[in-house]
Known about the structure:
mainly alpha, about 200 residues
Amino acid sequence: MSKSQKTRGAIFRVALIGICAALLEAVKIALEPIPNVEGITLLCALFGYCFGPTGVLASVVFVAIEPLRWGIHTWVILYLIYWPSVSIIFMIFRKLRIKNIFIVTGAAILLTVWFGIFSSLIDTFFFRFFSQYWNITKKTFWSIFIASYLNGVSFYVTQIICNAVLFPLLFRPLSILMLRLRAKFLPEKPKKDLTNKKNVV
């Protein structure tokens, strides 16, 4: 790659992180009036799948923006771990050349299920840590966890249905579009051709 191509690629990556993070925030704000109907899982998956580490960084920037709007609470830990993880998992999918829409959708659904479980675990842990009940037993811990999960289960079900619909419909066409943009602005480094090299004895 020439120096100008590398410079253009670096500029595009920086701009892309900002655009992707802004798009995540815009979609989240746009869908906030509809309880737990969300497009963040789809976008984080697409950014990781199509843009690799740049897409992962965009999800991190998105997470950094959220506390500026909502303040700091236990959900910050959930977001900081969960959303970059979604991007990383789908980045690995592309490296493994996984394109099957059923596998992609299944992974999205499992991740959405894990979102609800992980959220309830974090809330239960902090209830235990900051409450007056320092001698809470394991049995009580899991009872609180189940109560916390059931309290939000209607929201989690909505998220699961949302991603079960969005991924089959939108993942493939949007990934094709984004991969074309990547090919145009972020050309791959040419692989070294070793076939013409003579063997040295």
